Every structure is written in structure tokens, then in C-alpha cells.
Amino acid sequence: MNGAGTTSRGAASRPPVMFLMGPTASGKSGLAVQLARRYPVEIVSVDSAQVYRGMDIGTAKPSRELRAVVPHHLVDILEPSRPYSAGRFRGDALACIEAILARRRVPLLVGGTMLYFRALQGKVDDLPPADPAAREALRDEARRVGWEALHRRLAEIDPEAAARIHRNDPQRIQRALELHRLTGYGPTELYRRQGAQSAEYRITRVIVSPSSRALLHQRIAQRFHEMLEQGFIDEVRALRARPDLAPEMPSMRAVGYRQLWQYLDGRRTRDEAIARGVAATRQLAKRQLTWLRREPDAVWLDSDDPGLPAKVAERVESVTANGGMCL
Predict the structure, then answer these.
(1) Which of 17, 85, 99, 155 could disulfide-link 184, Cβ–Cβ 3.0 to 4.6 Å?
(2) For residues 41 and 87, what is the distance between their CA atoms, to the nearest angstrom?
(3) What is the 3-state secondary structure (H, E, C) of the chain?
(4) Which of these, 45, 25, 40, lies nearest to 223 by C-alpha position?
(5) 191 vs 321, more confident
(6) 280-291: average pLDDT
(7) Residue 179: which pLDDT band, with cuts at 50, 70 and 90?
(8) Sign of the CA dihedral 88, 250, 207, 96?
(9) What is the rounded distance in angstroms from the CA atom of residue 49 to the CA atom of residue 24?
């Protein structure tokens, strides 16, 4: 992982960090809790929706009762009316990692927000080529205020990038501002971080996923219906009633929330909203798997293998032993 700018360490002395990754509905969270109950690890959530308070059922957030026994970092840290970026996550996660290591425990980063994993490793050049929602929002704003106004905003965020990009070049202005929205950094800072920072941690990557896409799709549909039984629609109804929230906000565009909000607005029937929510979750899983296949040196494990807990435990034992942590 690229560190926070401290002096680089030799490979053998780098402190251990473990990634437990996988598509949505693959069982990562439950597995992480099992590990945290048994080994000297602390869970850091890598989930762009679990950071928000009041978004519990639709994000499959661990209950407060469970978190009282097995603490989870970066859960319920801000209101859904507030923006949260990959760049801010990176800073928050690095602070958590250093605090956990100081307690002589291993940070176990668990989740499915691949952009956050990439930002944490400093792989900012691996950002998606385009984010449709961010681009549409910028185009809408440009229609209201003009591209020159957006160029002036870029100059405030990243003067060097603004100097390179002409004020009449909407495509490059849009890309630069899109990067800032996605990561919290301007292009110049992103490129600097990518080129200048050194690896500070020794990462073990474990990816858990069902052996077949059909099985994953089945799990996604089953979990979505379980969320409905748990009161997902009432959760979205409560969020929709808040005066500080609107459907175009990033938090409310999360998978499932967006579709159920449309149902409550009367724009879709209940069945249509559910079908679209399941389909959107399946598309999310497809994107996650595409990102996961790019992860270097990752160990892939079948989430339905009865021996999965033992296989992951073996990895954790190796990490904690090599890191000098107490079992």
C-alpha cells in the first residue's frame, strides 16, 4: 500500500494489513466477525454507504449490538446529507490503520467499495474512466453557470491543472472536476501521490466470492427480499422525510435506496422498484468482480466452500505471526 508520506520501510519490516474483499452478498462481513472474535484483528469497513448514519438495513450494516462486542471502524461516522469521497476515506482509513497497529493488532479491511481500496493503495490512475452521475451533474451545472465558471472552480481546487487546461476545453475541465468529486483530490495531487509515495504496508489480499455468477445472483435476490422483511422500505421512508436529504444526493443514490425512493415518490410500483433494486445490485456485483480481477497477488476463495473459515483463518494466522502480533 502507498503510505501517508512517511519514510519507507524495508519489505520485511513493513507492518501487516489484511484485505478481505469480494462482491456484495458474498459473506465477507460475517466471516470478518468470526475472525475478529478469534484473532488480534480489528475491522475497518470499506463501504461507501455504511459510513452514513440511518442507512442500516439497505447497507447490511452490522447491528449496534454486534458492534458493541466486535468494534467496526468507519461505520456511522457522518450524516447522509454530507459528502464522502475516496480521498477522505483514504485519510480516515490510514489513521485507523496506524492506531490499530499501535495497539499491536492487525487491521482487517473489509468491504466491496473497490474505488476505496484503490484510493487506499494510492492507485489513483486506476479510477474508472467515467462516472455517469458525476458527469451529468457537472454538465447540468455547466448549463446553469457556464464552463468558464467551472474552470474558475478548478483553479481554486487545483491551480496547476487549471493552468494546463484551457477555459474553453469543457471535456478536460469536466474530467478534472470529476476526479475531484470521486477522490477528494485534484489531478495534480493525484499524479503526485501516485508517483512519489512509497509502499508502507505488507498487504495480504483475500477475495471471497461464490463459484458461479448464478449463485451470486440468487444470493443477491434473497438478501434484498430479506432486507424488505426487515423494514427496508420504512428505512427509506424515514430518510425521504428528512428535509436535508434529496434523491440526487450520493448517499440516496446507493443501490436499493434509489429504487425504493422512486417507489415512495410514486414513480414505480413496489414490484418494479424491487426488481430494479435487485438488478442494480447484480450490476454492482458485476462491476466489483471486474475491479477484483485486477487485484495483484490476491488469493481467491469460494465463499460456499465449507472449509472457507479454516482457509481464511490460516491466512490470518500467517499474517499475525509474521507481524509479531500476539495470538
Answers:
(1) 85
(2) 24
(3) CECCCCCCCCHHHCCEEEEEECCCCCCHHHHHHHHHHHCCEEEEEECCCCCECCCCCCCCCCCHHHHHHCCEECCCCECCCCCCCHHHHHHHHHHHHHHHHHCCCEEEEEECCHHHHHHHCCCHHHCCCCCHHHHHHHHHHHHHHCHHHHHHHHHHHCHHHHHHCCCCCHHHHHHHHHHHHHHCCCHHHHHHHHHHCCECCEEEEEEEECCCHHHHHHHHHHHHHHHHHCCHHHHHHHHHCCCCCCCCCCHHHCCCHHHHHHHHCCCCCHHHHHHHHHHHHHHHHHHHHHHHCCCCCEEEEECCCCCHHHHHHHHHHHHHHHCCCCC
(4) 25
(5) 321
(6) 95
(7) confident
(8) positive
(9) 12
Grid coordinates belonging to 243: 428535509
* Cell numbers given for 16: 501487516
pLDDT digits (tens, 9 = 90+) for 56-79: 999 999 999 999 999 999 999 999
Q: What count of other Cβ atoms lies within 10 Å of the Cβ of residue 292?
A: 19
Its sign, for the CA torsion 103, 104, 105, 107, is positive
Tell me, what amino acid is at 145? V
325 band by pLDDT with thresholds 50, 70 and 90:
low
Cell digits of residue 235: 428505512
* Amino acid, single-letter form, for residue 241: A
Q: Which three cell numbers stand for residue 33?
A: 466477525
Give this prediction's pTM: 0.77
Dig out the grid coordinates for 321 from the structure. Answer: 505471526
172-189 per-residue burial string, b: 16 or more CB within 10 A, e: under 16: ebbbbbbbbbbbbbbbbb
C-alpha cell read off for 212 = 458461479
